[in-house]
Amino acid sequence: APCDARVPSRDLLAFHGRSLLEFENITLPELPYEYSALEPVISAEIMELHHDKHHRAFLAGFNTAVAGLIAAQDSNNVASIVTLTSALNFNGGGWINHNLFWPSLTPVSNYTELSGPLGEAIDETWGSFDAFKTAFNTATIGIQVRDMIVVRLIKIFQGSGWGWLAVNPATGVLSITTTANQDALQPRTGLVPLFGVDVWEHAYYLQYYNVRADYVNAIWQIINWPEDLLHNITPSFNLSPIDNSVIMLSCAASAVRSGRSTLFRGVGLRGMATGQDLKLPALPYDYDALAPVIIPEIMEIHHTKHHQAYVTGFNNALAQLKDAEAKTDPSAIVGLQSALKFNGGGHINHAIFWKSLIPPKAWPAPGREFQPPSGPLEEQIKATWGSLDTFTAKFNAAAAGVQGSGWGWLAYNPETKGLQIATTANQDPLQPTTKLIPLLGVDVWEHAYYLQYKNVRPDYLKEIWKVINWKEAGDRFAAASKA
């Protein structure tokens, strides 16, 4: 049956079951401690940026979406309601999650050991507090993929998101889970969060750089363990729990039964398993070559730490896949797909990204602030968007709007024979997941710019056009359009 496009009455327009009228003009909550109070675990600089910039941005985005949705309802604008729903959930989730995060932490001087009913429940569930910490760290850091995804069915975090200790209000059972980007735990799953740890890169990168594990290990020194934590479980949303890990496994199992991998279209699992180990490619320029647009520190960490981690992760998953296939272990094969896609996609995307950039001194016309495209690609950009300025404005808007971690792409569509702007989440590779052919890609994970541009992603996107390698993009366009 076709979708009913009627606009709901004003009092039924809701955010996770509550009337939007309850959320008009909400304000940024004050922290229960000073920005410097969590040092040395979390620096004052991180805390101030995190609270005053990131949390405030989610709040502003939520208020804007609420006002827009109420106005759209009043004008019977169904299209606007649909468009604004994503912004409402993303920013509203960011508001909810951070409101939970700040009270989950306490200054080092106020820290007390876990005890009471919650401590007893953790011991009963995991055997010991140390075992619980290990399980939480593993899920939140995103390591030991086979053990966590295949054996325990705990959802592994990849990209931007949150780690949670939660309780099922219906059964009282504790669990460790993760949510992506700013998905709010309770509204989406029915689980009640007891505490949450933010593992978006902005939560730790200025201090811990790419070593998320150090941040997660350190944060246990400032977790707030109130004695009555388990006695304050009052669900504010009445939604049915959803076991995302089981859904993920079921969908992936269907792909294995069909004999194809869902990760890379047209590539069977056995074909992937026979490949040689990936190697980290050398950059075609020095780490300082893109300055001042991208500083050397970012380039070196990005290449030698982040890209290397994707290469290592893919090789490790590939080795486990070979072993699983040799043992004809379908559960292990299914469980490894996520790691193969995430790490393999990370390698593919970064290999394109490095070539999408060029030092200013390598331009054919040195001294120009911006090296424009030329030839057939320039003509196609103008035919599609009217001008290069219009294209870059639309590209920047799309890339800045990526919710969480991801990529912005200029792509060639082999079906329409035209150009289009696309975005992908986390490390999803463009061509294997969409059939679009990448001409140039821009990394908008926070690690790509945060040390220099902090929370202002639009400034990074504005500047990066000064080092875009349009010759590389033009060569890719020529090859794609002839295929």
From TrEMBL:
**InterPro entries on file:** Fe/Mn_Superoxide_Dismutase, Mn/Fe_SOD, Mn/Fe_SOD_BS, Mn/Fe_SOD_C, Mn/Fe_SOD_N, Mn/Fe_SOD_N_sf, SOD_C_sf
One GO cellular component assignment for this chain's record is: mitochondrial matrix
Under which EC number(s) is this enzyme classified?
1.15.1.1
| Catalyzed chemical reaction(s) | 2 superoxide + 2 H(+) = H2O2 + O2
Q: Where in the cell is it found?
A: Mitochondrion matrix
User: What are the protein's UniProt keywords?
Assistant: Manganese, Metal-binding, Oxidoreductase
The residue ranges of the Manganese/iron superoxide dismutase N-terminal domain are 27-105, 279-357
Taxonomically, the superkingdom here is: Eukaryota
Cofactor(s) recorded in Swiss-Prot or TrEMBL: Mn(2+)
Gene3D superfamilies attached here?
Fe,Mn superoxide dismutase (SOD) domain, Iron/manganese superoxide dismutase, C-terminal domain
Described by its record, this protein's role is as follows: Destroys superoxide anion radicals which are normally produced within the cells and which are toxic to biological systems.
> Mind telling me what this protein is named?
superoxide dismutase
